[in-house]
């Protein structure tokens, strides 16, 4: 119990430090280009007094660390500023978009993880047989697939050649799907997104299960006369921690890296929100999206670490 | 003493009893020679690279020259074996030329990141606790960004272009490479033959060169090869979004984006650039798998 509390406390401390670093990177990003961020925003013929007034208004006249601390203070109180382009609050718009992304990412993760775990386990228990070989091919294809292309290919097959599913969009006003039509819109992007996690988790589960099977305890359980189903359960329980860690990373990638698939399916999620911000040179939106998506990724990893430590006491170093 | 220690391989080898002990690399080469999949993959990759290098000879048309009359011809059109694109340019020629930019944008970042990240990882793995902590905590911060997000954010700020694509992907890949190298180096550092070399007062550069590097490079090679696969997919993805290579340059991701409008007219032609990305990235993944099993390496996760 004390070990667990100590572990969680240390991990929390580590996470706070990482989040601090993440905020510096997200803030510093726009200063990768030399000069004043306003120079990109404003046309070159903008009158000098307007530039000066805007500089003061956005705080660009102050030293960088003052700007950073002011920004960090606002972000910590949940205020990501207002969009330069639309004048709307970034926080509200981003949360909306992030919700739409989760509507895709969570089912895609569940599909990818369950397919990967099932196929990987089956492959490991049939090591070297035809099933194992077929699975290896599927898994490595999932890994090597440019998923944005798979999305286009699926649209061609299921929306153009054999039109049974909608090609793009959410079919409604956003948020959780409430109608049959909205559910149908989910199918193609969710299948597209689930390919990479399926491949990654499947390969990992296969190799971990193979390793666990080669230990002595499954043979002992078999000798004891335990049912096959129970043996598989014990093997999987031992193979779970590494798979869980990678599942956390994969869910983070699905949320943070969904921009390409969202573009293909014209899905109004956080990726498209960021893409728009890039082309509009909307700095507050870009900074806000990057810091929120990266923090989300960090927090998922923290949760995974805690769950891992709960399952496997060896992790509570 | 140093010689004896250096001869010790990191991995147990299946040497026949009583035979002359074979070197680690001879065994690896033997295993690779017997691995038909990896040999086949290596041949396909060499072919793709050769096509890209000798594009002026392999291409049948000018990749930038279109014709209004010959737009979106299907696969198998006489004179245009793989059809033509939305402005009537020959797809085969564009794919061959496109391989140049796609391969350069895929491979260069991994090479650069392996050089820089590998050095940092070795320093962190071998160096004192303070150095290790400094390097690894900074790396942790960059590792906290999903790779696609970081690449897109950097490219979005510094702008599109070949150089910027390579720069952003290099930054993205340094952190994972440092982590892998550091953990490989830390593992090797605690092994007996390194202790022995230390005890015999071998100078640090010699220990690094003769004991640590040979045992870390294999793992780095396997990891970097699999990263090339990801790098090709992300760099083509950046161009697909309009953040990477700029038109009219032929590049696979860019072609895929331009041909997206044509999926209703000519779906097979529109899919071809994606097939090129898939085959290349698949080959690098399979090559990485082949090298991994030939070298009998287990990468830290």
Structure description:
The complex is a heterodimer of chains A (317) and B (301). With 317 residues, chain A is mainly α. Chain A is 75% helix and 0% strand. Chain A is built from 13 helices and no strands. Chain B has 301 residues and is mainly alpha-helical. Chain B contains twelve helices and no strands. In chain B, helix 5 packs antiparallel against helix 6 (129-143), helix 5 runs antiparallel to helix 10 and helix 10 (204-241) packs antiparallel against helix 12. The radius of gyration of chain B is 23 Å and the shape is elongated. Chain B starts with a helix and ends in a 6-residue tail after the last helix. Mean pLDDT of chain B is 84; it is low at 1-9. Chains A and B meet through helix 1, helix 6, helix 7, helix 10 and helix 11 of A and helix 6, helix 7, helix 10 and helix 12 of B.
Beta strand count of chain B: 0
Major beta sheet of chain B, specifics?
Answer: none
The chain pair forming the largest interface, with residue counts per chain, is: A-B, 50 and 45 residues
In sequence order, what are the helices and strands of chain B, one letter per element? Answer: HHHHHHHHHHHH
Q: Which structural class is indicated by helix and strand composition of chain B?
A: mainly alpha
Helix content of chain A: over 70%
Structural class of chain A: mainly alpha
Which value, in Å, is the CA radius of gyration of chain B?
23 Å
Q: Oligomerization state of this entry?
A: heterodimer
Residue windows where pLDDT falls under 50 for at least 5 positions of chain A = none
What is the 3D shape of chain A?
A: globular
Overall mean pLDDT of chain B: 84
The global form of chain B is: elongated
Tell me the radius of gyration of chain A: 24 Å
């Amino acid at each position: 119990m004390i070990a667990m509390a100590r572990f969680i406390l240390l991990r929390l401390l580590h996470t706070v430090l990482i989040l601090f670093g993440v905020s510096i990177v997200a803030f510093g990003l726009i200063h990768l280009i030399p000069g004043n961020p306003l120079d990109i925003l404003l046309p070159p013929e903008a009158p000098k007094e307007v530039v000066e007034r805007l500089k003061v208004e956005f705080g660009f006249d102050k030293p960088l660390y003052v700007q950073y601390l002011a920004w960090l203070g606002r972000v910590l109180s949940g205020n990501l500023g207002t969009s330069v382009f639309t004048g709307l609050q970034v926080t509200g718009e981003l949360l909306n978009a992030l919700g739409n992304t989760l509507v895709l990412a969570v089912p895609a993760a569940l599909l990818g993880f369950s397919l990967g775990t099932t196929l990987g386990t089956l492959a490991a228990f049939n090591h070297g047989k035809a099933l194992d070989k077929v699975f290896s091919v599927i898994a490595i294809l999932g890994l090597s697939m440019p998923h944005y292309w798979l999305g286009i290919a699926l649209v061609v097959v299921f929306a153009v050649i054999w039109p049974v599913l909608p090609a793009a969009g959410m079919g409604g006003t956003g948020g959780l799907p409430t109608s049959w039509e909205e559910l149908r819109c989910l199918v193609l992007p969710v299948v597209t997104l689930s390919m990479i996690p399926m491949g990654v988790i499947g390969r990992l589960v296969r190799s971990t299960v193979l390793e666990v099977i080669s230990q002595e305890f499954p043979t002992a359980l078999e000798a004891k006369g335990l049912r096959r189903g129970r043996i598989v359960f014990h093997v999987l329980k031992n193979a779970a921690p590494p798979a869980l860690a990678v599942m956390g990373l994969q869910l983070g990638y699905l949320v943070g890296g969904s921009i390409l698939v969202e573009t293909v399916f014209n899905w109004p999620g956080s990726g498209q929100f960021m893409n728009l911000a890039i082309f509009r040179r909307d700095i507050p939106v870009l900074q806000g999206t990057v810091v929120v998506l990266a923090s989300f990724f960090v927090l998922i990893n923290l949760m995974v670490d805690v769950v891992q430590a709960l399952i496997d006491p060896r992790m509570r170093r | 003493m140093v010689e004896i220690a250096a001869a010790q391989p990191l991995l147990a080898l299946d040497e026949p009893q009583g035979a002359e002990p074979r070197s680690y690399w001879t065994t690896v080469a033997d295993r690779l020679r017997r691995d038909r999949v990896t040999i086949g993959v290596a041949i396909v990759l060499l072919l793709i690279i050769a096509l890209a290098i000798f594009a002026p000879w392999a291409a049948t048309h000018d990749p930038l020259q279109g014709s209004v009359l010959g737009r979106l011809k299907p696969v198998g059109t006489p004179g245009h074996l793989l059809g033509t694109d939305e402005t009537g340019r020959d797809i085969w020629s564009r794919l061959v030329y496109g391989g140049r930019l796609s391969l350069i944008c895929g491979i260069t970042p991994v090479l650069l990141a392996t050089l820089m990240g590998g050095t940092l990882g070795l320093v962190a793995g071998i160096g004192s606790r303070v150095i290790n902590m400094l390097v690894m905590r900074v790396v942790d911060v960059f590792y906290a960004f999903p790779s696609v997000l970081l690449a897109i954010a950097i490219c979005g700020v510094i702008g599109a272009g070949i150089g910027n694509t390579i720069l952003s992907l290099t930054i993205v890949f340094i952190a994972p490479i440092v982590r892998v190298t550091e953990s490989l180096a830390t593992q090797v550092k605690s092994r007996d033959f390194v202790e022995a070399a230390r005890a015999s007062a071998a100078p640090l550069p010699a220990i690094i060169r003769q004991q640590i590097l040979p045992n870390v490079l294999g793992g780095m090679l396997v990891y970097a090869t699999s990263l090339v696969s990801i790098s090709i997919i992300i760099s083509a993805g950046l161009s697909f979004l309009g953040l990477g290579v700029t038109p009219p340059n032929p590049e696979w991701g860019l072609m895929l984006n331009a041909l997206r409008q044509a999926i209703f007219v000519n779906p097979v032609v529109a899919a071809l650039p994606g097939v090129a990305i898939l085959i290349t990235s698949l080959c690098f993944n399979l090559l990485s798998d082949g090298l991994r099993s030939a070298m009998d390496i287990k990468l830290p996760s």
